[in-house]
Amino acid sequence: MAEVIEIARLGLTDQVASRLRTLLVEGRIAPGAKLNERVLAEQLRVSRTPLREAIKLLAQEGLVDLLPNRGAAAVKLTESDIVHTFEVLAGLEAMSGELAAQRVTELALSEMQAKHHEMLAAFERRDLSNYYRLNAAIHAAINDAAANPVLTE
What we know:
The structure is a single chain. The protein is mainly α. It has seven helices and two strands. The two termini are 35 Å apart.
């Protein structure tokens, strides 16, 4: 009997979540807009199953509101929601940076510096999609260098 390889499916879900996250963060899906699964599945060229799983992941992250029996919508944050979120993120980012500074390898540091230069170039070109992607990659690299699985979670 052939072994089921769940990793590929999860990988696809993560890829779909990443693409949806970008659409939401960049405002290409407006705050409060209902997520049309048929349209999104077609745009992203995936079936509805990984799309639904990705939407659930984004709901856990607070980017999507699940509407019982009505699908999902892009979260509509208030100014207060954003301030409170940034207060928590600032503390976590500070801890991650402090631990990374103590534990980072030369190789990891040089890779972060290279990504930083790429990010600056994307900013100069007004290439927001790559700017955000690289920014997230830098933050992930800092978190990886912190080497704290609880903080990562």
